[in-house]
């Protein structure tokens, strides 16, 4: 499994992903699920992926092959361009959706023959100069939805354990450091309750209108800040819980 | 959906269920998911159910019909007995499993024809005089597992949102009032993140060796203790979160 989170704030974007993949408990591996396409000052785009690793890697390969094409070929394709040349974030989401559909056309039937579903989902976010900052979720059908001020965070993978703290804390006015902190608490809760989500945790921030990766950090299990945060949070939750009034069980049934 | 929780402690059992059922968002209803079979001082058995309401109601009907049979017929069946006469909790779990299989034999093929899976799960717990207190999860196949000192709580339905607080707080030595409190915090987190789980919340406690329902309470949305607990917990979580050190986003990428 996987846990990826994107938060869209007035101040910018926070994108987070874990690094564990598993195909059964005896086949657990570490893969980075965060990919970045960046021309600092002009555009910064981040893609997070969940689902079947063969599918998500194939989708990313399609997107990267396009970027790497020689100029002549690229010109012929310039209607949409690539993630490094497309004119806006909606087209970027379409490019990801198109790549998902290419992989579907190649692999879905064979996967079905072997009893596997075509499972993949993506969070795509970023900003291209002159346009707004945007956050999308791209489905395995290649279609997508966008975050809004009412629903300003999107999750893929193992989403439920870490959702309550986001529901309580995050809104569009949340400052970036607090949103990063909330993302780390959210993934901590997920890791405690589900073995299939694991360190290191990649976090990236794109500040509004900077059109570049403003900040990026990989939190290992041994990271002092991350370790301290997890301990403080665990102790704090227990303290608060201990302070809540107990129900009175002596008052009959 | 549904959220049901059973906690097995040295001091006794805590059983909790919500009351919302839905078949699509325009067909939301309220059904109690907690059933009790009790002969105070001799036995107390609680069954919680999740899944397809037609299936879980049919299972309960089978179990109750057995209890209601005239004595002569009952005698003929006394090998296993009923939930009010069976000699131990393992047999009680088998009785529930047998009832599930009867409903499967009657309905599963028809459900499949209509594209529906046979989805149902149960938490069964209690104590019969002379035997130990036990907590089981009965699957839709009619087989079951039992809680242990390592895994002393079991959940069915919408289980993930409310699991982190249980993972942090509950162990076999937890006192009963604290476990009831934890169950209420757990269902609060679930209700905040998932509309398909809703009030009223039924909670029952069986103290070890009392072999009766020691305490039972239905928490409505407007219950003062429950409302206060939810507010205290929400405020406390936000306070603790606010006290955590923010990450330093000025330290480059």
Automatic annotation (TrEMBL), chains A, B:
Does the keyword Nucleotide-binding belong to this entry?
no
- Keywords on record: Hydrolase, Protease, Proteasome
Secretion signal: which residues? none
GO MF, any single term? peptidase activity
Q: Which GO terms describe its biological process?
A: proteolysis
Q: Name one GO cellular component term.
A: proteasome complex
Task: Report the domain of life of the source organism.
Answer: Bacteria
Q: Which InterPro entries match?
A: Ntn_hydrolases_N (IPR029055), UCP009120_prtse (IPR016545)
What Gene3D superfamilies does this protein's entry cite?
Glutamine Phosphoribosylpyrophosphate, subunit 1, domain 1
Q: Does the keyword Translocase apply?
A: no
Protein name according to UniProt:
Putative proteasome-type protease
The organism named in the record is Insolitispirillum peregrinum
């Amino acid at each position: 499994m996987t846990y990826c989170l994107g938060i869209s704030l007035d101040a910018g974007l926070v994108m987070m992903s874990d690094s564990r993949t598993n195909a059964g408990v005896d086949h657990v591996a570490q893969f980075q699920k965060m990919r970045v396409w960046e021309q600092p000052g002009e555009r910064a785009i981040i893609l997070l992926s969940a689902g079947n690793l063969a599918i998500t890697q194939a989708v990313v390969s399609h997107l990267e092959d396009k970027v790497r094409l020689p100029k002549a070929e690229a010109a012929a394709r310039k209607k949409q361009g690539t993630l490094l040349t497309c004119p806006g974030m909606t087209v970027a989401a379409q490019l990801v959706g198109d790549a998902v559909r290419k992989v579907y056309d190649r692999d879905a039937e064979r996967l079905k023959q072997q009893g596997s579903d075509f499972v993949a989902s993506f969070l795509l976010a970023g900003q291209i100069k002159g346009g707004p900052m945007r956050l999308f979720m791209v489905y395995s059908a290649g279609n997508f939805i966008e975050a809004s001020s009412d629903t300003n965070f999107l999750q893929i993978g193992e989403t439920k354990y870490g959702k309550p703290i986001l529901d309580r804390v995050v809104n569009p006015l949340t400052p970036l450091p607090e949103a990063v902190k909330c993302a780390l608490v959210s993934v901590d809760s997920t890791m405690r309750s589900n073995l299939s989500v694991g360190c290191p945790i990649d976090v990236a921030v794109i500040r509004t209108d900077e059109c570049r990766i403003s900040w990026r950090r990989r939190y290992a299990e041994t990271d002092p800040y991350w370790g301290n945060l997890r301990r403080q949070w665990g102790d704090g939750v227990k303290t608060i819980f201990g302070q809540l009034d107990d129900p009175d069980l002596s008052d009959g049934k």
